[in-house]
Amino acid sequence: MKLTDFITISDVETHILGKSMVGRIFPARDDRKAWANLPTDLQQAWLTQAESYLGYEWPSLRATAFMAYFEEGSRKPYDSVETERRSALCTLLIAECIEAKGRFLREITNVIWLFCEQTTWCAPAHHYLSLQPGEVLSDISEPLFDLTAGETAALLAWTSHLLKAPLDALSPLIRARIQVELDRRIIAPYTDRNDFWWMGFGEREVNNWNPWCNANMLTVLLLMDMEPERKSMLFDKVLRSLDRYLEVQFEDGGCDEGSTYWARAAGMLLVNLELLYRSSDGALSVYDQPLIKKLGQFVYNMNIDGHYYVNFADGSAIASQDYSMIHLYGSRIQDDQLRALGQIGFRTYQVSDRRGKGISFFQEMISLHSFASIHKEAALASPLVQDVWLPNLQVMAARESEGSSQGLFVAIKGGHNDESHNHNDIGHFVVYVHGKPFLIDIGVETYTQKTFSPQRYEIWTMQSGYHSVPVINGFEQKEGRSFRAEGIDYENSGDTVRFGLELVSAYPVEAGVQSWHRSLTLQRGQFPSIELRESCLLFEPTEQVLLHMMSSQLPQLQDQGRIRLQDSDQNQLLLQYDHEQWEAAFEHISVTDESLARVWGDSLYRIQFKLRKAVQQGYWVFRMTEQ
């Protein structure tokens, strides 16, 4: 699909260019009725949050904090301060629009000035975009357009747009300075450069950066003054760049970056589409296109229960989704399951949770102005899908019953080991019981310099040895597109759902594998179970075969080939295996990383099955039930 097949620059010139954007995308500050009609407690929550920034001692962005990324590998010293600045400005801007008394204008001016005085808006981790890499500081003469620069630009554009009169009354130099900085840092590099990889005009395949950066560029285009010819040219470039993103999306809507990244992939595509839709009064829309619908539906297809999601790749099992945006997406594509997920997730929305998280003004405005209507809607049926099969992404998910988290849930993936945010995890699977994790995908630790470096696969969470796949003759899976699944096979008879794949190409030739076929079956009915079947043919006999399974629960090794896993709610999973063939043990892993600890606490476990005797050909069954 190409966006430009449906929305041309001629359409943009007819329906957007030359039109006033005041009140068109969101209510203007002077639309007192729209702001006064917001729920009183929600208004007060934003005002209370903003009041904490009155008289605020704004933290500085030190050169040494920027350098810390290159010297120590840590993103936190610099990124946390910059994120707090954006969070503060977003909060103050919303509060000023709610109250419209000028009480927050001076602190808004303070943080505007801080942003305008920053040497760069680009995060240290993204300075590889520079034409002169290797520096530990940023060159002010080379503005770089990355995710954080775009977020800062869009927020400043909204501030200038919504607070035009009060800021000009304070000093016309404030908005003039914003215009200068947006021209220099965002508009000029977007105009002049085609080599930012996320634009899609080079050889590198794009990912979520493309819709994310383009959504921020589109915001600046819509809200800031610019010569008509230049604006038209930039609109055309945005549309062509978004084409590059849509061209590489799977027809089944699957996101190889994982469900955690849905909000930054399909979710950011939605921001682009909604900006075009609202700024044209609904004239420019592609919400009826099949691919757009499939991309939206991916997020509920990966929902296990509550905030638990299938989390292959750099995902977290507990995903932080923006549920008002999910609800909006569902409304636009007329999908009640997507709307239902938005309804359910939005129940936990709290303004107090937003501080310091780099919150997006667009998404917060969607939450704010749809809060009352979402809560008034009649409750929709649970969106928990019984069977999911994504043949392009090569992911299967299945549960015992449609619309219910009760019973067994399983998901397994194929694919290749060069996916965006890749882990070496072909054939990896997860098992949940009553919506709670038992056999898991660990996820990813807090990002550091190493995460996106040539040393990525030195990190334990990226390695296949810490996923539920075999280690053969001491060899784990390797990274790279040539290391892939083959022979994908999916069957669904209703009571029985099975996914099979050949793993031989996931391993280096040194592993000595002629064939390793894995299948995972969910059996529904009176005696539900999950069966993992392994069938292998090796070039030489060996006993050096390990099967790992990762768990969040303490394994209880019992007699006669049984392992029991039980959580604090007394949910349990019984794992049965051939103890004459396999020796079982487990390793305790102390969790020290902050990101992992938020999901799993302080402990994880790696269950290890080791062959008791050498084989050249083998066939084994591992059976999982609740009891």
UniProtKB/TrEMBL annotation:
Gene3D superfamilies listed in its UniProt record: 2.70.98.70, Chondroitin AC/alginate lyase
Top-level lineage group: Bacteria
Protein name: Heparinase II/III-like C-terminal domain-containing protein
Coarse class of the protein's main subcellular location: other
Species this protein is from: Paenibacillus allorhizoplanae
Domain Heparinase II/III-like C-terminal: 415-523
Compartments in which it is found: Cell envelope
One Pfam assignment: Hepar_II_III_C
